[in-house]
Design brief:
By secondary structure, the protein is mainly β. It has a single domain, classed as Sandwich (Immunoglobulin-like), CATH 2.60.40.
């Protein structure tokens, strides 16, 4: 389990650096100094319904424009087709769940780096469960990238993230919280 924890920590650092973005400051236009350039709000005021896309726009760490949509396509609990030993979970009585997500890069965007790291499950007691970064045999396909992947302008990437939750619990929301941006939330329907 120590090797898994060390690997997960290394992957989180790599994924966070790959998805790190600075917030767009709304710099002023040279022709009209008092008017800021319009920009997409960082996050909606209330949680979205599963299936609803959130459009965002930002400036990447290298100063290039990045923009696109992020969607939660579905949440399944309990998941079928999972062949994982209970010892891989951090819970004594795990229930496996699948979160299916999709990120699209706008035509005008530079490449958008994606990974499992910004995805979390939120619970009614104000706690969050980070994606465990599990991949390989036993994980339902198509898998969402663990180590990160580039989404080219005008294309999308969809995949599944495997979570385990303790038996008798269910998240109330899915939280997408990339480093440097406001979190976006989707409501998980009651069972």
């Amino acid at each position: 389990m120590n090797a898994r924890t060390a690997l997960a920590a290394t992957l989180l650092v790599l994924a966070a650096s790959a998805t790190a973005c600075t917030a767009e400051t709304g710099h002023t236009d040279a022709k009209s100094p008092a008017k800021a350039k319009p920009h997409t709000p960082a996050a909606p005021d209330k949680p979205l319904k599963i299936g609803t896309a959130h459009h965002w726009s930002d400036t990447d760490t290298d100063g290039t424009h990045i923009s696109g949509t992020t969607s939660v396509i579905g949440y399944t609990q309990p998941a079928t087709g999972v062949d994982m030993p209970d010892s891989v979970s951090d819970f004594p009585h795990p229930v496996w769940t699948i979160l299916e997500v999709k990120v699209c890069a706008d035509d005008t965007s530079s490449n958008v780096m994606v990974s499992q790291a910004p995805w979390n499950l939120g619970f009614a007691d104000d706690t969050r469960l980070a994606a465990p970064l599990i991949s390989g045999a036993g994980v339902p396909k198509p898998e969402y990238p663990v180590n990160g992947a580039a989404v080219k302008p005008g294309t999308c990437l969809r995949g599944k993230i495997l979570f385990s939750v303790d038996r008798g619990t269910r998240p109330t929301q899915v939280v997408y919280a990339p480093d440097g941006r406001d979190p976006v939330e989707w409501t998980v329907p009651k069972a």
